[in-house]
Give the backbone structure.
Amino acid sequence: MLRTVAVENYRSLRRLVVPLGQLNVVTGANGSGKSSLYRVLRLLADFSRNTAVAALAREGGLDSTLWAGPGRIDRGEPLRLRVGFAGDDFGYAADLGIPQPGESKYFHRDPQIKAEAAWAGPVLRPSTVLADRGGPVVRLRTGNGGWHMVPHVVKPFDSMLTQLADPQQAPDLLVLRERIRSWRFYDHLRTDSEAPARTPQIGTRTLALAHDGADIAAALATIEEIGYQADLVDAIDRAFPGSEVEIASQDGRFEVFLHQPGLHRPLGTAELSDGTLRYLLLVAALLTPRPPELLVLNEPESSLHPELLKPLGELIASAAEKTQVVVVTHSQPLISALENSGHEINTIELVKQDGATTMRDQGILDAPAWHWPKR
């Protein structure tokens, strides 16, 4: 389980070290930095697929994403963005900077990975380092406690998680990379009139709902066949009393129908309201038969009727029994539903002071222990 997420110089997140629990709620006023913290988690996941540099480039490069407030230039700090996380068994951090002038003719806006480190346990210390990188040079901890210097250089746009994870030479990096790759993010579950979820889709056994919800029918059918069928029935009944979900399959194409009391025929997904369809999508995501290491929901309450927030909160809390969950929300009714679920909630309330995001009531000595790798 992740215990800490840390970031420096990403948008309004000047310097933030956040403690995590099993079920986490990130909240705060509009503009307080909730979306930025969500993007940091996604950025960390991008390192495991070697797409972090491209993700930052799409945001305009470091020029657009770096902290723009006072302090950095005044103290002569280098232009850099640092992100990392730590758990009970592994930690990882990366330090990104800008390329040297004239180093690239075409890709001068691409940030470069200047340093990386992976370590054992919740805190980076010299004795816990498993692999570290300074510029192009990487060294790996050997079984006898010594170091193996990687004979070839790692390009500044490549992460050591993707280039060096190997079952023989770097098994710890391989395990860490696969754990990060299992993280799931849902922030774009489509419910518009052209949403793929509103039309029949070719389906196979689906253990994880797609990021846009296109394979909802196959995902619900998989839950019904090899997953938490009783929980599925209960989740639908709590939200829509007396209703049942039916999965129709014809020629390999799957479609969802909702039977509701008082209606002579079931409604297909093309006929459902945005809120009803979104709730069904969240059910498919949260009842996955193969829970990830980390599940992150960004504003799941969007377009939901207020009466659906209580059953959604109960569903999220139940999912947290099987996986670590982070919910980014500004909905107080959803937060109340989570707090009343009987589960312990780790509330992360973000506030902005002088343009910088901080965690409410977190003093200097309250933040988890954290150290960055050196360049």
